[in-house]
Amino acid sequence: MATAPPRQEWLVVIPDQEGMFDKRMEVRPQHFKELPPKLEDSAPCAYKAGGALLEDPIKEGVDLKINGSFLLATAETKEDVIKTLKEDIYTKSGVWDWNKIQIHPIKSAFIRP
After folding, report:
1. Is residue 38 within a helix (H) or strand (E), and if so which, with residue range?
2. What is the pTM of this model?
3. 112 exposed, middle or buried (CB, 10 Å; 0-12, 13-18, 19+)?
4. Burial level of 36, CB count in 10 A (0-12/13-18/19+)?
């Protein structure tokens, strides 16, 4: 029986478009609602870690200044990553700046739980 080729790890950095913080917060619940299938290892683009890019380091008592997203995922191809990202509400609502997206193939040395 043939085994599937190992999936490539991908590091994705997607800045938000200028002035999209309110829109990000508006659609954020839908973004999180749509995450569970993408967290499954069997997903075409399986998310391993992800979160917000911040303008400034976290400071107690100060609201986060979110200005984008990062993602660590596994997929067979870059096209699988792009297809999954294009289906995200942050793309569909114009939050993410696709002119500045970075998608890099990587090989992680370790991932802590």
Report:
1. none
2. 0.90
3. exposed
4. exposed
